[in-house]
């Protein structure tokens, strides 16, 4: 008797899961749906009843944006003229460290509203490892959002994560480590509010 009930259970389960039942139920469900509910993602955008001129304008804009580029050159103009893609020199290793001045009133009393976030940092330290390089061989150009470093063996074109005061930075070459340390004060519009 138990075998018969298990067979019936399997047949009932098979009937529930059959594709024919699914297709019939889908057809029944779509009969009661209003036309607006049948719209899908393909219906978004300009309708097919637009004039010929509008179709050309829409398609040309779409074709311009339908490239493999992530962004247009017009969107990223600063520093792109400094990127020299034909230069075979390798990029040196570098680290970007954000620094902030912290006093005892910050550390023990928390009086100056500073926190460990990058919004409260005053300067950026960039450490560039330049093995087998002399101090006299280093050429450094710092812009507000771009750092250009060139030596006979290395080339570094670095887009900075925050704008900096390019004329107020300092650089020193540590010969023991063969490392150039560049300290740049950050330039952000809310520095007056955050660093008071």
Shape: elongated
Total number of helical segments? Answer: 5
Number of strands: 7
Main sheet overview: 4 strands, antiparallel
- Share of helical residues: 25-40%
- Low-pLDDT parts are 58-62
Order of helices and strands: HHHEHEEEEEEH
Oligomeric grouping of the chains: single chain
* Mean of pLDDT: 75
Distance between termini? 85 Å
Alpha carbon gyration radius: 32 Å
Classify the beta-strand content into a percent band. Answer: 15-25%
Placed side by side, the strands forming the largest sheet appear as 1-2-7-6
Given helix and strand content, the structural type is alpha+beta
Secondary structure elements and pairings:
Blueprint: H1 2-17, H2 19-31, H3 52-65, E1 94-99, H4 104-109, E2 123-129, E3 139-142, E4 146-150, E5 155-159, E6 170-174, E7 179-185, H5 191-194
Structural notes for this entry:
There is one protein chain. The protein is α+β, with helices and mostly antiparallel strands and about 200 residues long. About 25% of the residues lie in helices and about 20% in strands. The chain contains five helices and seven strands. It has helices spanning about 1-15, 20-30, 50-65, 105-110, 190-195; strands at about 95-100, 125-130, 140, 145-150, 155-160, 170-175, 180-185. A four-stranded antiparallel sheet has the order 1-2-7-6, with no helix packed on it. Strand 6 (about 170-175) and strand 7 form a beta hairpin. The radius of gyration is 32 Å and the shape is elongated. The N and C termini lie far apart (about 85 Å). Mean pLDDT is about 75; it is low at about 60.
């Amino acid at each position: 008797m138990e075998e018969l009930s298990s067979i019936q259970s399997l047949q009932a389960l098979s009937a529930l899961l059959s594709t024919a039942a699914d297709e019939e139920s889908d057809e029944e469900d779509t009969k009661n749906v209003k036309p607006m509910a049948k719209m899908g993602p393909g219906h978004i955008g300009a309708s097919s009843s637009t004039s010929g001129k509008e179709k050309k304008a829409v398609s040309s804009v779409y074709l311009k944006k339908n490239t493999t580029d992530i962004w247009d050159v017009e969107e990223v103009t600063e520093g792109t003229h400094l990127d020299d893609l034909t230069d075979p020199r390798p990029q040196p290793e570098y680290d970007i460290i954000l620094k902030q001045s912290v006093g005892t009133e910050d550390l023990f009393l928390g009086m100056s509203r500073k926190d460990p976030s990058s919004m409260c940092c005053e300067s950026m330290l960039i450490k560039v490892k330049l093995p087998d390089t002399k101090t006299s061989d280093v050429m450094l150009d710092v812009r507000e959002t771009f750092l250009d470093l060139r030596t006979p063996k290395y080339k570094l074109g670095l887009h900075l994560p925050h704008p900096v005061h390019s004329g107020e930075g300092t650089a020193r070459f540590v010969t023991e480590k063969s490392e150039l340390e560049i300290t740049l004060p950050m330039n952000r519009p809310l520095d007056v509010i955050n660093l008071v």
